[in-house]
Each structure stands twice: as C-alpha cells, then as structure tokens.
Design brief:
Shape: globular
Family: Belongs to the sulfatase family.
GO molecular function: arylsulfatase activity; metal ion binding
Keywords: Calcium, Hydrolase, Metal-binding
CATH class of the largest domain: Alpha Beta
Strand order of the largest sheet: 6-5-9-1-10-12-2-13
Structural class: alpha/beta
Helix content: 25-40%
InterPro entries: Alkaline_phosphatase_core_sf, Sulfatase, Sulfatase_CS, Sulfatase_N
CATH topology of the largest domain: Alkaline Phosphatase, subunit A
Mean pLDDT: 93
CATH architecture of the largest domain: 3-Layer(aba) Sandwich
Protein name: Sulfatase
Number of strands: 18
Oligomer: single chain
Distance between the termini: 69 Å
Amino acid sequence: MKEFSAKKPNVVFIITDDHRGEAIGAFGREAVQTPVLDALAAGGTACRNTHIIGGLTGALCAPSRACVQTGIPIFRATVGKDMVTRENLNVIRPDVRIMPQAMQEAGYRTHAVGKWHNDKASFTRGFQGGDKLLFGGMSDHTQVPVYDYDPTGAYPKEQEYVEHTFSTELFTNAAINFIAGYGQDEPFFLYVAYTAPHDPRTAPEPYASMYDRASLPLPPNFAPEHAFDNGELMIRDEKLAGWPREESEIRIHMGDYYAMISHMDAQIGRIVEVLKAKGIYDDTLIVYTADHGLAVGQHGLMGKQNLYEHSVHIPLIFHGPGVPKGKQEEALASNIDIFPTVAGLCAVDLPEETEGRSLCPLFAGEREGARRIVGSAYRDIQRMVTDGRWKLIRYYRSPITNAGTERIQLFDLLNDPWETHDLSADPAHAGDIERLATELAAWMQATGDMLQEQPVLPVAPRV
C-alpha cells in the first residue's frame, strides 16, 4: 500500500448556504448563539475580511461554490458565459482540476455529503464516495431529495429518494457515519455541504424558540425599502417579506435565521465530538465557510442578490494543524483563496490554472503578497471593489431586463461598517471615487469580466 506522510492532516470542509460573515456569536456584531463555531475560531484562525467573487445568476450558490472548488474567478470557472441565456453557469469547466480532485491526486480519500449545486460530472471526478447527496439548490428541510453515491456519475432521477430527517441532522449523521467508520491508511477529505440556514427557515425545537422575536435588536441599516432600483428588487428572495418591510416581520425572519444557524452550530458540534472520540481531532483540519451571505431586512432587502457586506462578506475559519490559534486575520481575502489555503496547509500541489492566493503566508505573519483590493460582481447590474476601508459599488441599468439604475455608492467601512452613509455625492471624496473606479476597472479586466468594456463612472451622479 502507498505510504502517506504522517504530517498530512485529515480535512473536514464545511460549507453552508446563506450564512453571512458577521452572524457568528464570537464576532460580536449580532445576537446569534454559535458556541461551536466560537470555539473553532478561538482555537484557530478566523479570516474576518473574506468576500465572494459573485456570479451572473440570482442563484448565487452555484457560482460561489464553483469559485471555491476551482480557485478561479467565476468568469473563467464555468462553461457558461452568456448573461442573456444564463445557460451552463453552474457547470464547472471540465479542463479544471477542482479541490477534491487535487486532494485525491495527493493521496486523500475524498467523500462528500449534502449539497452539490454544480454539475454532476465535476462532482464525479472529485469524489470517490459520498452519501445523502443533494443535486440542486434547496428543498424543504424535512423533505430532502437525495441520492446515494453513484460511481458511474449518472445519478438518474429514478434513483433519487426523499429523506424526512431534518436536512442539517441528515447530513451530519452521514458525516459522522463516515468518520466513525473510516479505517483506511490514507488521510480523508470530507466535504460537508449544508443547505442551512437557507429558507424555508424552519429550525426544530428547542432552537425554533431560542430567540425572542419581539426583542431582537434590528441592525442599524434596517430600512423599509431599498433606496433605489438596484436591478433585482423583485427576485424570489425579495418576496419572502412584505413591502414596505415591517420591523416586527423582519424580527421574525431574523429569529428564524438565527435559529437555523444555532441548530446547525450544534450539529457541527456533533462532528467535532466524533473526531475527538476517534482520537483524530488534533490531526484534522476543519474549514468552515459559506457560499454567500444574506440581507434579512438590511438595506430594505431580504436576499443575497446585492453587493453590500451582508451579502458578499462570508465567514471563513481554519482550525487544526498548521493554523495559528486565537487569530483574527483582517487582511482582505476572496473565496478563490480558500482552495489554495487548504492545499497549502495539507502540502498539496495546486493546479496551474488556480488563480487564488494561499493565506498561509498571512498565518505566518508575512504581509507581503496580501490583497490590496477585492472585487465582486452580480449579473450585469452591479460591481464592487474595496480596499478594506473604502468601498465603491457601481450600478448599471441592465440591457437585458432594463431594470437597475446608473449610479454609484461610496462607503467608509471603517467608520460606517453597516453601510448607512453613501458618500458618493461629497466632493471631498472625488479622489477616493476615482482611485476605486480605476481599481474596479483593473479588477474587471483581470478577472475576465464581460462588462469590462463599459465605462465606470468617474464621479458621482446626482440622483
């Protein structure tokens, strides 16, 4: 049997759906209880300034997960590039080696549990096993359409069946079964993809009653409606609450959202416990992240189809061998950096086509090479760039739907982290706008953004 280095850690890679970056108790911004994630952050490194690249479709799960799996900006990560038909935007390029594929080639046993919102061909080339596999975006949490692992990669519809165990518990049970029964010599790469806290937000008791909806504090950026047409005000997510947004209804949604997160946190705790019981906790790298965030009433929005921090800022926690303990890393990062960082911590060679940057040098205290800016995109109607303090959002009117508004916003994230004061009309900030507009244009060109030929407004329009 092939021998593997004892220094290679096992990996439990956890990715969730709709969990925004600040909705973790240890980070102190929201009234959510997450003792397990708090402990992982305290015993590891929390990358507090990680953003998604974005996507060209309202179902942001698929493009974000494609970026995580490939370490490549969405404009080059998938087969589809047409924003008119929006076809194949979830299909990962077949010539790209994805994260589990690289791990497998390095001697890891790869196993998946839960949601895979990209194409089945990419899943099949990445994973050698799996259980309770959901090929799609969402489901009722007590009626989950799943497949058993199919080594042929076909997954015909007649092999799908419905599980009635709550999704988060269903996927956790499958992950625990894999860990408890694992007895092979090579290290494992276990990919656990939850559908929580995505709606329908129907957490089981006692979590459903954990939060008093009447007393939850509203965020400072709560608004009855969005200030202008951002091009995507009528998508499904935005219809989950009435217009104008009522404070009482938003508090109900917030409580339901937090309940889903707290329930999921407890289930992750079960995975931690089985790692400890098996005696491999200290030898296992645990990665926690999400595909994107969610508004839930902030800025008058409900969904993730926007470029405010609540939607593009994601949690990212590393815990285990090679990871500093108790570190909160504030350097800018992108979700395409996750794969290179996992590879670096596991001594796995990266595919040449990977464009993300490993965060391992930052973990070691090396600041050279840290990102100066990060950018994000949403369809053909929104683009964003930030240097960590100043943030520019550029809005377009869609030539496809004719929705949207030609304008910009400028925020000072240091003094206005909730993005409540748009400074774009202030002449004192003309230089900041011009500088960020130049950075945005360069980012769009570098990532292969198809809107790169359109001009970026150099000054704030008066609206």
